[in-house]
Amino acid sequence: MVNAPDYESVIKKLENEELNTTVGPVPCPVYSKLLALYVQQNDLCNAKFLWKRIPDSVKQSNPELKSIWNVGVQLWNRNFTDAYAALNVEWSPEIAPIMQNLQHEIRARVIKVVSLAYSTMDLEAFAKSLNYSVEEATRVAQEHKWEIIDTPSGKMVCPVRPPYSYAQVTSNEDQLAKLTEFVSFLEN
């Protein structure tokens, strides 16, 4: 299993392997793992470009590749309920840890969004957004020290906003370097 901090180096290695394949087509496992890692890293633009680069014959011969892309499409559309359903397939041993990590990442993103966007939320809706049972969602809310209150319409979760962190100020040179890197990426 690849640890999360190592994903960037694995992505670079797979990108180089794709670019440097001179004899025959790129092996399908390279495409599968690279696509899964792009989706896991929430780099959906690169995932989409990779999907367009993959030959149709490879797409047709590998159902797992289609399943990975289906997860990416659901995330692109911000349809987390369908993303959880798309993740609920049998993955190969090479892809399974990446997709399990992705499921944890999606839940962490949902919890963060809920804590920032809601002062109260229906417990059942919160559970559905995490693809958890009400009991599991209650446990998650308690772990985050969120209050759960009874109302006439049902139980509600009262998320606690995380402390506001001020964005780091970057120098103009850093911003210019990032812009230059982005433009050169678009041109190449």
Automatic annotation (TrEMBL):
- What GO terms fall under cellular component here? COP9 signalosome; cytoplasm
Task: Supply the InterPro entries for this chain.
Answer: COP9_CSN8 (IPR033205), CSN8_PSD8_EIF3K (IPR033464), PCI_dom (IPR000717)
* A Pfam match: CSN8_PSD8_EIF3K
- The principal location of this protein is cytoplasm
Source domain of life: Eukaryota
PROSITE patterns per record: PCI
What keywords is this UniProt entry annotated with? Cytoplasm, Nucleus, Signalosome
* GO terms for biological process, alphabetical: COP9 signalosome assembly; protein deneddylation
Residues of the PCI domain:
3-170
Location(s) in or outside the cell: Cytoplasm; Nucleus
Signal peptide positions are none
Question: Entry's PANTHER family?
Answer: COP9 SIGNALOSOME COMPLEX SUBUNIT 8 (PTHR13339)
The record's comment on protein family reads: Belongs to the CSN8 family.
Name of the protein in question: COP9 signalosome complex subunit 8
Q: Which organism is it from?
A: Bemisia tabaci
Tell me the organism's taxonomic lineage. Eukaryota, Metazoa, Ecdysozoa, Arthropoda, Hexapoda
